[in-house]
Amino acid sequence: MNYFIRSGQKRLGRLGRLLYAKLAIMNLAFIGLGKMGAGMARNLLRAGHTVAVYNRSRAKADALGADGARVADSPADACRDAEVVMTMVADDHALDEIVFGRHGIAAAMKAGCVHLSHSTISTALARKLTDEHARRNQGYLSVPVFGRPEAAEAKKLVVVAAGPSDVIERCRPLFDAIGRATYVVGDEPWQANVAKLCGNFMVISAIEAFGEAYATLRKAGVAPQVFLEIMTTLLGSPVLTNYGRAIAEENFEPAGFELRLGLKDVRLMLAASEECTSPMPLASLVHDHLLSALAQGQGEMDWSSMTRVVARNAGL
Predict the structure, then answer these.
(1) Confidence band of 222 (pLDDT split at 50, 70, 90)
(2) Half-sphere exposure at residue 208, Cβ-oriented, CA atoms within 13 angstroms
(3) Are 139 and 167 in contact (CB under 8 A)?
(4) Closest listed residue to residue 77, CA positions, set 103, 100, 59
(5) For residue 50, what is the enclosing H or E element?
(6) Are 109 and 83 in contact (CB under 8 A)?
(7) Residue 68 CB: number of other CB atoms within 10 A?
(8) Dihedral sign, CA of 191, 193, 194, 199?
(9) Between the CA of residue 41 and those of 81, 97, 155, 276, what are the distances in Å?
(10) For the chain, which domains are there?
């Protein structure tokens, strides 16, 4: 969306906003309708966009079909007539298959079409996607998001984008449709993936800190719930408060973010830190605790259940 349309939106008030909304409507493909993707796709439909959806298990796509989406038979089919293709899948393997596999999107996207990858992936795959789409005269942005499934449904995600500025501006209405704030962190798409991995590292580090503190508090006979109130007063972060409460109450199911996926993200974080020759000793510790939790059958539980490993180490 160019500067004059955005300026007109500000100058013309309601008329300008209506014009902006009309001009910003796009033909989209959305691939990956899990806990996060379904809410994101639904908000794009609510914003008035035309959306074709695909998911490996068709029932999830059919649910969006009831809301007005076109249900596609393959990733390639979803790309038909799409101006922008948005993907939200679990890991590198899943995204590689969607892009490069049989009926993949790379061969199906028309020239000028843009791929927005919202998945938490490796920097290596982000660079591979950047090169491949450029070779095909297509656009590519890494646009990971922060937030749990309920935030995706409520349009309260924090969007992190990196890539060419003109492509980011073209796609900004889509970011506005799925999130409450957008941050541009660089000109190279892989930079957004590093930002997302570092953000997830900060969250899991806070979980580790809660686990260690609660183990000591319980052994000292102090209720974690009271301590959480103190920390909420001092730190005042909804993320810390919500995780602190879940850990204090040992409420790890259903998972908002599965531990096995958290372990994947920490592995990617360590790979990125090695690539940048930037030691992250706390990330290594958290990796080992997550791996221990996975070995003890906690892979499908919320990643905050890692604190059970800390508690067991303390003899609780």
Answers:
(1) very high
(2) 18
(3) yes
(4) 103
(5) strand 50-54
(6) no
(7) 11
(8) positive
(9) 17, 21, 10, 34
(10) 3-187 (3.40.50.720), 194-313 (1.10.1040.10)
Q: Please give the Cα distance from 79 to 102 (Å, whole number).
A: 14
Q: Which helix (H) or strand (E) holds 140?
A: strand 139-142
For the chain, the straight-line distance linking the first and the last C-alpha, in angstroms and rounded, comes to 57
What is the DSSP secondary structure assignment for residue 145, as one 8-state letter?
Answer: E
Structural tokens at position 246: 């879940």
Q: 173 with 143: CB under 8 angstroms?
A: no
Catalytic pick from 110, 196, 219, 264?
Answer: 196
Q: Which amino acid is at 60?
A: K
Quick one: average pLDDT of 197-204?
A: 97
Is 196 an active-site residue? yes
Question: Strand 27-31 relative to strand 84-87: parallel, antiparallel, unpaired?
Answer: parallel
In this structure, which long-range contacts are made by residues 230-234, counting pairs with CB atoms below 8 Å and at least 24 apart in sequence?
none
pTM score, whole prediction:
0.89
Residue from 250, 247, 86, 248 nearest 152 by CA: 86
How far is Cα 217 from Cα 201, in angstroms, rounded to an integer?
A: 24
pLDDT at 11: 43
Residue with tokens 């009271």: 226
Closest of 302, 210, 204 to residue 255, by C-alpha? 302
| Four-residue CA torsion sign, 224, 229, 234, 237 | positive
Partners of residue 161 on adjacent β-strands: 184
Enter the DSSP assignment of 69: P
pLDDT in tens, 35-51: 999 999 999 999 999 99
Name residue 12's beta-bridge partners.
none
Q: Which of 136, 140, 135 is nearest to 171 (CA)?
A: 140
